[in-house]
Amino acid sequence: MKRNLRFVISDCKLTPYLVCLLLIGALCLHTTEFASPEPLDPDLVLYFDYEEFKGDTVIEKSGRGYDGEINGKVTQSDDGKFGKAGLFAAGSFLDLDGANVDPDDIPTEGMSVIAWINVEAISDMAIFNARAADGTWLVHPEARGDGNYRWLNRGPNPGRTIFDIRAGKNEANKWQHYAGTYSRADELAVLYINGNKVGEEKSRLDTPIADNWGQGARVGFNIDNKRPFTGLMDELNVWKRGLTEEEVNAIMNDSVEAFLAVEAHGKLATTWGKLKASK
User: Fold this and answer.
1) pLDDT tens digits for 42-100?
2) Torsions phi, psi of 198, nearest 5?
3) From start to end of the chain, where are the E strands?
4) How far apart are CA 149 and CA 167, in angstroms?
5) Within its chain, how far is the Cα of 30 from the centroid?
6) What Å distances lie between residue 57 and 50, 66, 102, CA to CA?
7) Which of 21-25, 65-69, 204-208 has the lowest mean pLDDT?
């Protein structure tokens, strides 16, 4: 790169201004090569689209780098809702090394867990699970053996329940869209199945969600090796805020990446409008 720059500068009659621009551009390019990727969204904690498997891991796409280590048999399927999907054999899961997740990425003031699922049977199946260092089971997004779905959050020690929703109709061998949302500020938890609100509950307590995943975090199996997810999963995304019904439906219909692209376009348009108005 340096030889090329010297050649251009010595053989072309460039103004000092253009020379500076060239040097700044080269420096920016060099810096970008070593820069860490930025998260796709400040509130998006985890995103598995199951499009990229690498050895014994499934690559996580939020930009935070929480790749899932495969335990058991999780394979890539061509029968995803959007492209590929993860096919989970009974007792298999993705280990997210919960104890080492950045504390700033742990949802405490709100949480949303969203996924397309296609379960093989009507039984208790965990979509995502995390357990705090004090033993608190802090989240239960599940398909249930009693024929419904569950959405739950708990606060810190002694593990008090903030809400516990059980609603909807669990169906096997077909794609179902699961979305549980919670906002502490709004004091409200909502469960959506296929974009439709099937249950809601006002928060029972004014407490944050337990603030660590010290005993682990997994996709597809509880920390105590119970409630194994068996079947297909696609577009799993976990947020540290309660998404709106409009956002849930946008993600359901178009995928997380498409939703974020539209969101970014809207922010850009708003910013441009403000700039124009200030002239």
Assistant:
1) 999 999 999 999 999 999 999 999 999 999 999 999 999 999 999 999 999 999 999 99
2) -110, -15
3) 44-48, 53-54, 57-58, 68-71, 74-77, 85-88, 93-95, 110-119, 125-126, 128-131, 137-139, 142-143, 149-154, 161-167, 176-183, 188-193, 196-202, 217-219, 231-239
4) 5
5) 30
6) 10, 10, 19
7) 21-25
What is the number of alpha carbons within 13 Å of residue 243 lying toward its C-beta? 29
| Residue 40 structure tokens | 């796709």
For range 5-26, the mean pLDDT:
42
pLDDT by residue (tens digit) across 224-254?
999 999 999 999 999 999 999 999 999 999 9
Domain extents in the chain: 2-34, 44-263
Q: What is the pTM of this model?
A: 0.83
Q: Looking at the DSSP assignment, which residues form a beta bridge with residue 183? A: 110, 188
Dihedrals φ, ψ of 83, to 5°? 75, -120
Model pLDDT, residue 256: 96
Are 245 and 192 spatial neighbours (Cβ–Cβ below 8 Å)?
yes
When pLDDT is averaged across residues 127-134 and rounded to a whole number, the result is 96
8 A C-beta contact, residue 81 and residue 175:
yes
Quickly list H helices, the chain.
2-11, 16-34, 245-254, 256-278
Give the model confidence (pLDDT) of 142-173 as tens digits.
Answer: 999 999 999 999 999 777 999 999 999 999 99
What CATH code is assigned to 44-263?
Answer: 2.60.120.200
Q: Are 209 and 138 in contact (CB under 8 A)?
A: yes
* CA–centroid distance for 142 within its chain: 16
